[in-house]
Design brief:
single chain; about 700 residues; about 0% helix; Maltoporin, Chain A; mainly beta; five-stranded mixed beta sheet; about 60% strand
């Protein structure tokens, strides 16, 4: 058995930005600590991510969903699919069974992930063992984050060493033989130095035949107060993940819906369907607070990714012969990211207007090697790249050899980004706030094709503005309008898509217009609602008058509405409600005009309740449902809508000890959870119970 070590990203953050007044006795005792972005049950008051300044959520003109550490624990979340399940306007595609691929407001992405505000863009399945909270930003955020983020992004705020009494041990095991151990140890060495260690080990099966997953992660962090005003945070993360690559079942041409089989049925070759990823990441954050209140933060992240997967996957199903076509390929990606950000924030006053100003620069280098090989079924024929297997026994046990074919990639790319940005949060009066910002990126990609010895390059000048206006009729209510823009360069989100015909084209652009309301109903309960229109432009299509040329046209638009209510209705009752409506339309190319976007349900609703009866007993009950959608932009195969019920029981038998039973899909509903294309559809899990034990130090 082959074991591949995987490392999960190194998450770092000047993070917590803690200031502490300490009194020394035999132990270190903290009298006061301020934590930016501190949670209140399921509600979060502030965040630094969307604006790079510590800002109340209701003062940010953008729809944002924040999942707290408590919510992550209560719902027993372990993956990004778990994260977005209850987030309005976002759903998870299959990602070929080996990568996170969320769909934000109709736009699928494998690269719009960040750790403490720094890019984490290689294709893999992320873990939550070291997450303090998860932030989901809706709509383009190019002004803060640069390229990408067409429909939104996900930022993980990682656990950092601090002077709080935190830490614990979490052990879980499920009926599907999913075993997991996570640990968190935080220690204040003295009033100036704190260290923390988080880790995870998992060895799991699932309801799917042949499936296995092994992952381990280790994330030590250190925070050191160099002076009263200067601090240094260091972080290193090692994470290893190996699993079966599973791409599900095909559609049924008789119904144009997912093929109805037993939910465990695996199609392909387990020996030739393995995914591995290794991530080594190091972060250093230096922060300094000046006497005048200004703050300077410099963050550097170096990450080394080694990703490989091979897969044998289903194609078309023929009901007359009861045979399924299968094909195969493998892919290897090695990437090194070096990213440095420097931010200066300060406040000034001009006349009656208060300004919270941000100015910053970012430099990044991304060095990527990418190779893909096509699989050939050698025992059938040297040139046979697909074959047929019977549906009643769809596991292929023959020989598969891999070699380059057609346009299989074998390239090296160097991407360099140089950016400068400025933002002004203006308090015009007690009732009016304006947020204005712009970012300029000089983004260049040099790509060398190892197969053809052809070198291509592209240079893009990206100007990403954001303008928002907030009106506060009363202190706890904000009505806002927002305009934002971001770009996806021609090299693509994974920086490997450059070609001779696209290198000189302008990048795709995404423009979002949004109207919203945020209302803190009380200290523990917040309501957010938004309506928006997101447009995609500069889509490259073939010129009807010249098949050798490309035209740039408007490609698609998504109109939608989102509603979210989260927090605490009353003492002991935590509550989350989310609803989204999405109406999408494809405008180009002409062959697809009038169709709707892939895997974008018109309606999605989610409800989660947790009620704590007393100090010992609590229960949880959740419901998530979505309407039908089309699996691909050809709108040929429907992904049926579904509703699913989840439940939980919480028991605290002793101080610092919690027992928890989470039951997913309580009614054992049969449904299709996600898809990659019309013939790669993942069945939803049957009822599954997970027992967890948590002990806090």
């Amino acid at each position: 058995m082959r074991i591949n070590v995987r490392l999960t990203k190194i998450a770092v953050s000047v993070a917590l930005m803690t200031t502490a007044s300490t009194v020394l006795a035999e132990d270190v005792r903290i009298e006061h600590i301020e934590v930016k972005g501190e949670k209140l049950n399921y509600k979060v008051q502030t965040t630094t991510t969307a604006t790079k300044t510590n800002t109340l959520l209701r003062d940010i003109p953008q729809a944002i969903t924040v999942l707290t550490e408590q919510q992550i624990a209560d719902q027993s979340m372990q993956s990004m699919a778990d994260v977005v399940r209850y987030v309005p306007g976002v759903q998870m595609s299959q990602g070929e069974g080996h990568r996170d691929a969320p769909i934000f407001r109709g736009n699928i992405s494998t690269a719009d992930f960040f750790v403490n505000g720094v890019r984490d863009d290689v294709q893999y399945l992320r873990d939550l063992y070291n997450a303090e909270r998860i932030e989901v930003l809706k709509g383009p955020s190019g002004m803060i984050f640069g390229r990408g983020g067409a429909g939104g992004l996900i930022n993980r705020v990682s656990k950092q060493a601090n002077w709080l009494a935190t830490g614990g041990l979490d052990l879980s095991y499920s009926a599907q033989q999913q075993g997991r151990l996570a640990a968190d140890y935080n220690h204040a060495v003295n009033e100036d130095l704190a260290v923390r260690l988080t880790g995870v080990y998992e060895d799991s099966d699932s309801f799917r035949d042949y499936f296995y997953a092994k992952r381990s992660g280790l994330n030590p962090t250190l925070t050191y107060k160099l002076t009263e005003q200067t601090s240094l945070a260091l972080s290193y993360e090692y994470f290893d993940d190996e699993r079966l690559t599973d791409r599900g079942v095909p559609s049924d041409p008789r119904t144009n819906k997912p093929l109805q089989t037993r939910r465990s049925l695996y199609i392909g070759s387990p020996d030739n369907s393995i995914s591995t990823v290794t991530v080594d990441a190091f972060s250093a954050t230096l922060s300094h607070e000046f006497d005048n209140g200004a703050t300077l933060i410099n963050q550097t992240r170096y990450a080394d990714y080694d990703k490989y997967y091979d897969n044998v996957f289903a194609g078309a199903y023929n009901p007359e012969t009861d045979l399924v076509s299968i094909s195969s390929y493998n892919s290897a990606t090695a990437r090194k990211n070096l990213i440095n950000q420097t931010d200066l924030t300060f406040e000034i006053k001009t006349g009656s207007i208060n300004h919270k100003l941000l100015t910053g620069v970012e430099y990044s280098e991304q060095d990527t090697d990418n190779r893909r090989l096509t699989g050939y079924f050698s025992d059938i024929g040297v040139g046979t790249s697909n074959t047929l297997v019977p549906l009643n026994n769809p596991v292929y046990n023959g020989v598969i050899t891999y070699r380059a074919a057609g346009n299989d990639a074998d390239n090296h790319s160097d991407a360099v980004a140089k950016a400068v940005y400025v933002q002004d949060q203006m308090e015009l009066s007690e009732q009016w706030v304006a947020v204005m910002g712009v970012r300029y990126d000089q983004f260049s990609v040099d790509l060398y094709n190892n197969r053809t010895n052809v070198e291509l390059s592209s240079d893009d000048d990206l100007l990403s503005p954001r303008a928002g206006l907030i009106y506060k009729p009363v202190t706890d209510v904000s009505v806002y309008v927002n305009y934002s823009k971001s770009y996806v360069p021609r090299a693509g989100e994974q920086l490997a898509g450059l070609s001779a015909t696209t290198a000189a084209l302008e990048p795709e652009a995404f423009v979002n217009r949004e109207l919203g309301l945020k209302w803190d109903l009380n200290d523990n309960l917040a309501l957010t609602t938004a309506v928006y229109k997101l447009e995609r432009t500069n889509v490259a299509v073939t010129d009807p008058a010249d098949p050798t040329a490309l035209l740039l046209v408007d490609g698609q638009n998504v109109k939608g509405a989102e509603f979210e209510l989260n927090g605490q209705f009353m003492t002991g009752w935590d509550y989350i409600f989310g609803y989204s409506h999405q109406d999408s339309e494809i405008e180009a190319p002409a062959a697809s005009r009038g169709k709707v976007l892939a895997q974008v349900p018109r309606n999605k609703v989610s409800i989660w309740n947790k009620y704590q009866f007393n100090e010992m007993w609590g229960v949880g009950l959740g419901f998530v449902a979505q309407s039908d959608s089309y699996i691909a932009t050809d709108n040929l195969v429907t992904l049926p809508g579904f509703g699913r019920i989840d439940a939980a029981i919480f028991v605290n038998p002793a101080d610092k000890l919690r027992l928890q039973l989470n039951v997913e899909n309580l009614t054992d509903k049969r449904y299709s959870a996600s898809a990659h294309n019309n013939n790669n559809i993942m069945p939803g899990s049957p009822v599954n119970a997970r027992l967890s034990m948590s002990y806090k130090f």
